[in-house]
């Protein structure tokens, strides 16, 4: 993009006394004429660019000129780099890496060590423990489709395991609760839906089939919505943990959420949409947790636990 190229040229000129137009043209894969037009645009923006003629000539900034560093403080630049590094753990992007390089290049040398310390003091890793390799091709394909406004065909498996072929207009990638989703307009359903990337397969960009971005309905910005597009109703549940499983409750809900129960165990009250995710989550906590309320949720978990136990009562499969 032109804006990114202009910013890159400015940063290069700040760090090098002089650069030849031919070198810039090769670096950004444009013509020398385009580079000179970029230089004119930079000069028009108030940055004093000077061109030097002759064999050893080139393009440079007026001697002694520096961009106003008050636009962003070193702490603000460090915060941006920290955020970019964290996002890159789940959503790798060459643009993120280039931007981090650019920011590092404008940091004063006498501040470099402190800057490195600040940008490495916090590390937020969004990637799952088993890595993110299986999602990266989907993320890259969908990002390309979003940027180019191209429709995408895919096979989707809903919460009930039903497969269907969809044609969608991708709008926004959403990272929610360590899971990637896509807000897209479904051409079959003729409405916006929230699709989970792990439930997608056989993704294909439709060549040449572009679309005009639609206005997102206000409610679609709520990333808590289910893939059906409906906002799930959260209801309070009460869980009780055995004393030796207190650490498990603290890990999931935080120390402040725990309160002592009358029977010596530990109790947690939280509001959740009561759906398949919740059933699997509670069963995944193991035998040291018990659903106290509501009664119907307790019965669902008991039924599923009994079904699991029944499978293991029979002899081992051969």
Characterization of the model:
The protein contains ten helices and eleven strands. It is an alpha+beta fold and 318 residues long. It has four domains: 2-61, Orthogonal Bundle (Arc Repressor Mutant, subunit A); 69-119, no CATH class; 136-221, SH3 type barrels; 234-313, Alpha-Beta Plaits (2-Layer Sandwich), CATH 3.30.70. The chain has a five-stranded antiparallel β-sheet. It has a four-stranded antiparallel β-sheet with strand order 9-10-8-11. A hairpin with a 5-residue loop joins strand 9 and strand 10 (266-273). Helix 4 (74-88) runs antiparallel to helix 5. The longest helix is centred in the C-terminal third of the chain and has 19 residues, at 295-313. It is elongated and about 90 Å long. The chain starts with a helix and ends in a 5-residue tail after the last helix. 14% of the residues are buried. Mean pLDDT is 80; it is low at 221-231.
Largest sheet: 5 strands, antiparallel
Strand order of the largest sheet: 6-5-4-3-7
What is the level 1 CATH name of the largest domain? Mainly Beta
CATH topology of the largest domain: SH3 type barrels
Radius of gyration: 27 Å
Count, helices: 10
The percentage of residues in β strands lies in 15-25%
CATH architecture of the largest domain: Roll
Basic shape: elongated
Domain count: 4
User: Quaternary status of these chains?
Assistant: single chain
Q: Please give the number of β-strands.
A: 11
Q: SSE string, helix = H, strand = E?
A: HHHEEHHHHEEEEEEHEEHEH
Distance between the termini: 61 Å
Helix content: 25-40%
Which spans of ≥5 residues are poorly predicted at pLDDT below 50? 221-231
Name the average pLDDT.
80
What structural class do helix, strand and pairing data support?
Answer: alpha+beta
């Amino acid at each position: 993009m032109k804006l990114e190229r202009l910013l890159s040229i400015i940063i290069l000129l700040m760090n090098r006394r002089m650069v030849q137009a031919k070198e810039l043209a090769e670096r950004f894969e444009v013509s020398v004429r385009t580079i000179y037009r970029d230089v004119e645009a930079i000069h028009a923006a108030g940055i004093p660019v000077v061109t030097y003629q002759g064999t050893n000539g080139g393009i440079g900034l007026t001697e002694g000129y520096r961009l106003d560093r008050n636009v962003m403080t070193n702490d603000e630049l460090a915060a941006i780099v920290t955020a970019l590094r964290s996002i890159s753990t789940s959503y790798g992007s060459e643009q993120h890496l280039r931007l981090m390089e650019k920011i590092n290049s404008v940091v004063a040398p006498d501040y470099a060590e402190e800057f490195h310390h600040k940008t490495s003091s916090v590390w937020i890793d969004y990637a799952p423990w088993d890595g993110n390799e299986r999602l990266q091709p989907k993320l890259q394909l969908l990002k390309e489709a979003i940027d180019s406004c191209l429709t995408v065909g895919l096979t989707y498996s809903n919460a009930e395991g039903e497969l269907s072929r969809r044609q969608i207009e991708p709008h926004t990638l959403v990272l929610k609760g360590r899971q990637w989703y896509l807000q897209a307009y479904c051409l079959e359903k003729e409405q916006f839906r929230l699709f989970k990337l792990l439930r997608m397969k056989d993704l294909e960009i439709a060549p040449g089939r572009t679309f005009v971005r639609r206005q997102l309905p206000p409610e679609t910005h709520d990333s808590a919505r289910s893939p059906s597009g409906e906002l799930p109703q959260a209801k309070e549940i009460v869980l009780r943990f055995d004393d030796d499983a207190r650490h498990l409750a603290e890990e999931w809900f935080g120390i402040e959420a725990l309160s002592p129960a009358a029977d010596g165990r530990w109790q947690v009250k939280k509001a959740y949409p009561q759906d398949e995710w919740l059933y699997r989550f509670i069963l995944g906590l193991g035998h040291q947790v018990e659903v106290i309320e509501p009664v119907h949720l307790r019965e669902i978990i008991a039924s599923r636990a009994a079904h699991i136990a029944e499978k293991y009562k029979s002899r081992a499969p051969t």
